[in-house]
Amino acid sequence: MGQNSELQSRAQGIGFLVKMSGLQSLLCLFWLGSVQAGKLLVIPADGSHWIGMKPLVEELGRRGNQVVVVIPEESLSMGPSEHTTTLTFPVPHTKTQTQELVLAYMDENLNTDPSVDLGGLLISFITVETFKTFTVRNAESLLFNKELMKTLKDWDFDAILTDPLESLGAIVGEFLNISSIYIQVNHPCGAHFLASQCPSPVSYIPHRYTQYSNRMGFFRRTVNVVKALLQPLTCRRLFSHADEIASRFLQRETSMLEIMSRAVLWFVRFDFAFEFPRPVMPNMVMIGGFSVPKPKPLPQDLEEFVNGSGEHGFIVFTLGSMVSELPEVKAKEFFDAFRQIPQRVLWRYTGVVPKDAPKNVKLMKWLPQNDLLAHPKAKAFITHGGTHGLYEGICNGVPMVMIPLFGDQGDNVQRMVARGVAETLNIYDITSEKLLVALRKVIHDKSYKEKMMKLSAIHRDRPIEPLDLAVFWTEFVMRHKGADHLRPAAHDLNWVQYHSLDVIGFLLLILVTVMFVTFKSCMFCFRRCLRKSQKKKNE
Amino acid sequence: MGQNSELQSRAQGIGFLVKMSGLQSLLCLFWLGSVQAGKLLVIPADGSHWIGMKPLVEELGRRGNQVVVVIPEESLSMGPSEHTTTLTFPVPHTKTQTQELVLAYMDENLNTDPSVDLGGLLISFITVETFKTFTVRNAESLLFNKELMKTLKDWDFDAILTDPLESLGAIVGEFLNISSIYIQVNHPCGAHFLASQCPSPVSYIPHRYTQYSNRMGFFRRTVNVVKALLQPLTCRRLFSHADEIASRFLQRETSMLEIMSRAVLWFVRFDFAFEFPRPVMPNMVMIGGFSVPKPKPLPQDLEEFVNGSGEHGFIVFTLGSMVSELPEVKAKEFFDAFRQIPQRVLWRYTGVVPKDAPKNVKLMKWLPQNDLLAHPKAKAFITHGGTHGLYEGICNGVPMVMIPLFGDQGDNVQRMVARGVAETLNIYDITSEKLLVALRKVIHDKSYKEKMMKLSAIHRDRPIEPLDLAVFWTEFVMRHKGADHLRPAAHDLNWVQYHSLDVIGFLLLILVTVMFVTFKSCMFCFRRCLRKSQKKKNE
C-alpha cells in the first residue's frame, strides 16, 4: 500500500486526479514483490483508438506490471481501465466540443463526391485539417504543466506505450528519454512506414486514401507515384502544429517524424488476412485482431429477436463507436431497403425514426456487435470499415456491406473487397436500391460466405495470440531496456546516402570520364591516321 | 500398416530403397487415423544443411505428419531420420568424390589472400564455380528417372519442404505443382531476397561475401552498389547449369529464380540477435537457432577433463562438420598458441599431431559441442562461423574467436564482430601470436563476455520457440493448401513496372512537354514584345 499512497500523494499535490481501485492497491503490493514487473507509462489516443488499445493495457496490468495511464479529464471515450492507475489532467475543451469537431469532419466527408476525388486527394485534404486540430489539442495542457511532467519523470518508467495518432505521447517519451512503443493502425501520411524506414514499393503498395488495391493499372500507379512524391510534404503539413509544439517544449529544432524514428517497437494493428502483403521491418509486431474478445451468449431479448428471423437470419448494422446518427434523408434509404428484405436487422441508431419504420428492424443505442456476429444466424454485417468491426467480421466469418465514412476506412474497405468478401457503397450517393443489390449479393451469392470462411480460418490459425504477442514484446522492451538489435542502420544515413545517390553520382562521373577519355583517345588516333593517309596522298 | 506396405511395395518395385522402423509403422497407423496430419515431401541439401534441417523434419514426423525424405544413396551427411520414411535414389558419384570436391573448394579458399580480395570478389568467384557443380550433381539422377518421379506424383503430397541450395527440391516442387516451403540460411547470390521480392537497400545491407558490416563508409557503399548491380548476373551464372536442367526437365524455358519466386514460405535461418536488422517479407519465417538442442551433461571423462582446468576454464575448438583436418603448417600455429595459455583446449581434429603436442589440448574425432559450450567453465569458442556453431555459441553466451573458411562464414563472422562478442582471424595468414592476442582478448576483456551474455539473453527471450514456429507454419501450409495471403503483388509486375520506370518516364515526358511549351510560349511573347517595341522605335 506504500506505493499506492506515495503515488496518490505525489499526484494529488499537483492536480492529478488518481483513480485506483482496491484491486489496484493489491496489485501495487504484487509490483513491489515482483522483480520481473516493469513500470509502464501509457498515453493513449481518443475515440476508437483507446477502445482498441485498452485490452492490451489491462492485460499488462493484470500480469503485475505497474501501468500508469495518463488521459485528459475530458475525452470522447477514454476512462479508467482495470488493473491500471489512471491519472487525468485538465484540458481547456469539453467532450461536447470534441464531438462537434468529429461530426463536422464526418459531415465534410459525407458531402464529398468520391467520384470526382482523384486518388482521395480531397478526402486527404479534409483529413489533414481535422488531424492537425485533433492530434495536438491535449498536448499543450500536459507538456507545459511543469509539475505534472516532473512527476512523470520522477516515476522513472521503463517504457512508454503510446498511440502516435496524437502527438502528445511521442513527445512525452522523447522528453523522458525512455523506450517508446507505438501502437498504430494507419497513419494518414503513412508516418509509421516513413519513420521506421520501411520500404513501400509504390508499384504495388497503394498510398493511403487512394482506396486502390495492390493491383493497379498504369493510371493508378501514376497517381500512386505522385502521392508518394508528395508524401513528405503531406507529412510536414500534417505535423506542422505538432512539430512546433515539440520544438518549443523540447527547446530544440525537431520534428515529429524525427521523434517517431526513435521508436523502439511498432505494434501495427494489421495482419495479412487483412493487409496487402508488403515488406515489414524487424521492429514491427503485427497484432491485427488482438482486441477481438471471445463471444458471449446474447441477452434473452436479443436471442429471441435473432432466432425469430428463421432461416433468413439477421443483419448487424453499425457505423462505429463515434457515429450513431445519420441525416434523415440518408437514414430513410436504409429503412426503405430493410422493409424489402426477409432478414431481421439490428441497427445501432439514435437518430430520427420515421413513423413507418419496418418491424424487422430493431434500433438500439448500443449493441453487442461481436456477440451478434458470432451468432450462427448472422448473415451480413453493414459496417463503416473501422478496424475493430472489420476484424470482428473476419473472426466470425460474416460477409460485409461496407460504407466507409472517414479516415482510413475507405482503404480498409478496399482490402476486403479485393478479397471478394465484401461489397462497398458510398454514403454520398447511397440509395435503397443500391443497398438492396449489395445486401442480396453478399447474402445469396455463396462465394462471399465461402471466401469469408476461408479468410476467417486463416486469420484465426496463428502460432500465438496477437494479444499475447503484444504483451510479450512490451515486457521484452522493459526487461531489456529497449530493443536496439531490431533498429536498422538506415536511421544513421541521410536521405542522399540512404538512396545511394552519392555513390550513383560517383559511378556516373567515372562512367562519363571513361567515355570522354575513350572518345578523345579514339579521335586522337583517328586524326593521326587521317593525317598520315593525307601525307601519303600528298607524297 | 496398410499404408506402410503400400508405400514399400510402390517404392521397392522401382528401385527406391525404403527405410522404415517399427516406430514409423506405428506412426503410419496414426497418420491414417488423423485428419489433421499432412503429407510432406522433404528434399534436403547435403552437409551441414541437412544437420540443420533434421530436427524440424523429425519433429514434423513425430507430430503425426506423413513425412517422406528423399535423399541420394551416397552423400556427405544425409541419412535416415526418426519418425520419417527415407527413400534413397542411386547417383553416379561416391561420398569420397564429394568429400574431395569440398576439400578442393576449401583449399582454394585457404590459399586466397583476403587482403587483396576487394569486397570478396575472388571468394565469390571460387564459390560460384563450386556451387554450380555441387548443387546440381543429384538433380539429373532423380529428375530423369521417370518411374521415381511418377511415384512421387502418385503420393499426392500436400507440400514440399526443401533446401534451395541444391536445385533439385525446388524443381521437384514445381513439377509436382505443390506448395513449396524453402529453408534457407544464406544464398551465395542472395537468391532468397531476390526471389521473394524482398527489398534490400544497398546503402545499409551489405552484399554477400563482402564481409562488410551494416555501417559502411563511402568506399564500401560503392563496392556494395557495384555488387548489387552485378547481382542478377551472378545469379544467372550461378544457376546456369540448374536453369538448363530445369528447362529440359519441365520442357519449357524457365529459370531457378522464376521457380523460386513461387515459394509459398521461406524459413530463413536467422534472427536479429545475429542478422543485421533489415526489411523482411510476410512469407519469411525467422527460425534462427531452431536447431540448437537442450544441453546434456558431459560424459564422465570430458567432465573430468574440463573440471581439471580450474579457474582458467577451457576453450572449445571446431571448424564445422566438414573440416576436421588442417594443413600441418597451419595446425602447428594452433598447437604453438595453445602451449602458451593456461586454459585447457578441446579440439575436434583428425590431422597430423606433432610429437610435442601440448598436454592441455585434448584432440577428438567428434565432440559434444553444444554440451561443452553450455558448461560454466567454457571461456571461449574457436569456430569457423557456420550458423549451427554460431547459434550454439550465442545460446550459451560464449565469446568467440572466428576463423571463417568458406561460403557465408566470412559474412556471419562480421555480424558477431560488429556486436563486440568475437574477434576474427584469417586462416590464410594465421600465426600463433595472432591467435594468442585474439584468445586473450576475448577471455580477459570482460566486455566480450558481457556483450555476449546480453546477446544470449535477447536471443533466448522469444515469444515462441523457433522450432515450434517452423512446425506451425509447415502444418499451416498443408492445412490451408498454401499461403496465398502472404504473397506480395510484386510478383505480378515486370522489372520496369516494379521499379515504376514506365510511370517515371511518363511523368518526365509530361514535365519536359510542359517546360517546352512554357519556353516556346515565353519566347513567342518575348518576340512579339520585341517586334512591337522595334516598330514603335521605327515610328
Could you tell me the radius of gyration of chain A in angstroms? 28 Å
Beta-strand residue fraction of chain A: 5-15%
Q: Name the chain pair whose interface involves the most residues.
A: A-B, 54 and 54 residues
* CATH topology descriptor of the largest domain in chain A: Rossmann fold
Distance between the terminal alpha carbons of chain A, to the nearest Å? Answer: 115 Å
- Percent helix of chain A, as a range, is 40-55%
* CATH class category of the largest domain in chain A: Alpha Beta
Average pLDDT number of chain A:
87
Low-confidence spans of chain A: 1-35
Class by helix and strand content of chain A? alpha/beta
Number of helices in the DSSP assignment of chain A: 21
Strand order of the largest sheet of chain A: 1-4-3-2-5-6-7-8
Main pleated-sheet profile of chain A: 8 strands, mixed
Sum up the overall morphology of chain A in one term.
globular
- How many individual domains of chain A? 3
Q: How many strands appear in the DSSP assignment of chain A?
A: 14
Query: Which CATH architecture of the largest domain in chain A would you pick?
Result: 3-Layer(aba) Sandwich
What oligomerization state is this entry in? homodimer
Task: Report on the architecture of this protein.
Two copies of one chain form a homodimer. Chain A is of the alpha/beta class and 539 residues long. The first copy, chain A, is built from 21 helices and 14 strands. Chain A has helices at residues 2-12, 22-33, 48-62, 95-110, 121-134, 139-143, 146-154, 167-176, 191-195, 218-250, 256-260, 300-307, 328-339, 369-373, 387-396, 409-418, 432-444, 446-460, 466-480, 495-498, 501-538, and strands spanning 17-19, 39-43, 66-72, 85-89, 159-162, 179-184, 265-268, 284-286, 314-317, 344-348, 361-364, 378-383, 400-402, 422-424. The first copy, chain A, has an eight-stranded mixed sheet with strand order 1-4-3-2-5-6-7-8, sandwiched between helices. At the A-B interface, helix 10, helix 18, helix 19 and helix 21 of A face helix 10, helix 18, helix 19 and helix 21 of B.
